[in-house]
Amino acid sequence: MRLVVVSHPCVTPVNQAFYGAVERVSGWDLTIVLPRAWRNEYGRQQAERSEAFSGRLEPLPVVLQGNIPLHVYRARLARVFKQVRPDAVYVHHEPYGLATAQAFRAALRAGARSLGFYSAQNLRKRFPWPVSVLESWVYRRADYAFPVSERVEQVLRAKGYSARSHVLPLTVEVGSEDEESRRDRNGPLRVGYVGRLAQEKGVDSLLEAMSLLGDVDVRAVIAGEGPDREALERQARRLRIEDRLEWTGYVPHDRIEEIYRRLDLVVVPSLTVPNWTEQFGRVVIEALAAGAAVVTSDSGELPTLVAETGGGWTFPEGDAAQLAAAIRSSVVDPARLREVAARGRAAVRERYAPDVVARQFVEVVRESVAEPAASGP
User: Fold this and answer.
1) Is there a cis peptide before residue 130, judged by omega within 30 degrees of 0?
2) Per-residue model confidence as pLDDT tens digits over 193-206
3) 1 and 366 in contact (C-beta within 8 Å)?
4) Measuring CA to CA, which of 29, 128, 196, 319 is 20 to 30 A from 239?
5) 319 three-class SS
6) What is the CATH code for 177-351?
7) Would you call 160 helix, strand, or coil by DSSP?
8) Distance (Å, rounded) from C-alpha 283 to C-alpha 90?
9) 153 near 118, Cβ under 8 Å?
10) pLDDT tens sequence across 273-320
């Protein structure tokens, strides 16, 4: 079977690895259409191939690089579809994205038998015309959808999507037990945050918690960059905790695992804001896969992820005292911390390993080709 994937995240090679797993478990002929280049707050990234993916890559120029909902491919998208003549097309993009409608139209003109999309939007948002019209059209034409959580699936249904749907989580590679046995467990408890330094990420709660832990041996690593960096550094100086913090700045994704392996406990202190709440929490499964336990706020999907893996604890978002208590308990009972981390790592291997999730993906796409579900003209 021939499958075309349209994915702006695949400009980052690590995001192609999942489709390498799809190749392994299915034997299908895969083509990934992706931006030739993509801009984000850290600069401009050129498309590169992942060693984990052996199929065809089609990097194409896009208009509005970096604008996730509004970018479109400038040229040749229809030509690629006509050349490949896919049986199925999967757009790793929200249904309200302009590139999703563009890809669906090209796929239909090329005779694709099945169309599907991704979604992580767990808030019911209303969009202006013409985006709302295109979103409704995508719902009518889609044969399958892959929401990343049950809450996302509920939002899709509430907005009118009625065809085949399967909750498909994000994935992460899990290293060998030998790699885990080499973790350095000596010295102070090492906690850390990995991600963007922005208001909704709640890093100020971690700094406040560190100020409440002056009587225990704890060090923190803050890995990431963002608009709140200077404000957070001023807060650290005001709280007099600078000597217990390490700021790494931006860390490329292919080096993130090095950070996780330095940590015993990864903190995910996200805050819910009017237009956003945690949609999945990939940092949770990445940390667990690397052998660290987690403590997260109760924002969005984080409590569900922690409960499903058993790899950590949650605290009320913004409650620095409760976060400090969770960190303190890990200092007091390191054996329990190791037990929780090991349980979480095993759960990630069982639930979120690429081959495990790829088999679910393949089954749904195969069924959708055999029994197309779209109803609209």
Assistant:
1) yes
2) 999 999 999 999 99
3) yes
4) 196
5) coil
6) 3.40.50.2000
7) coil
8) 25
9) no
10) 999 999 999 999 999 999 999 999 999 999 999 999 999 999 999 999
Q: Dump pLDDT digits (tens) for 216-230.
A: 999 999 999 999 999
Contacts (Cβ under 8 Å, ≥6 apart) of 182:
none
Whole-number Å distance between alpha carbons of 147 and 152 = 6
Please indicate, yes or no, whether the overall pTM of this predicted structure exceeds 0.90. yes
Contact criterion met (CB below 8 Å) for 147 and 165 = yes
Which pLDDT band holds residue 254 (cuts at 50, 70, 90)?
Answer: confident
d(CA 289, CA 301): 18
Q: DSSP states of 256-280 as a string?
A: HHHHHTT-SEEEE----BTTB--S-
User: Which residue spans of the chain are classified as CATH 3.40.50.2000?
Assistant: 2-171+354-370, 177-351
Closest by CA position to 143, among listed 369, 363, 361, 377: 369
Beta-sheet strand order (sheet of 144-147): 56-60, 29-35, 2-6, 88-91, 114-119, 144-147, 164-165
Contacts of 107 (CB under 8 A, 6+ apart): 4, 81, 86, 89, 115
Q: What pLDDT, in 10s, does the model give residues 48-87?
A: 999 999 999 999 999 999 999 999 998 778 899 999 999 9
In b/e form, how buried is each residue of 323-344, taking b as 16+ CB within 10 angstroms? bbbbbbebbeeeeebbebbbbb
Sheet holding 189-194, edge to edge: 245-249, 218-223, 189-194, 265-268, 293-297, 312-315
Could you say which of 1.10.8.60, 3.40.50.300, 3.50.30.30, 3.40.50.2000 is the CATH number of the domain covering 2-171+354-370? 3.40.50.2000
* CA 284 to mean position of chain CA atoms: 10
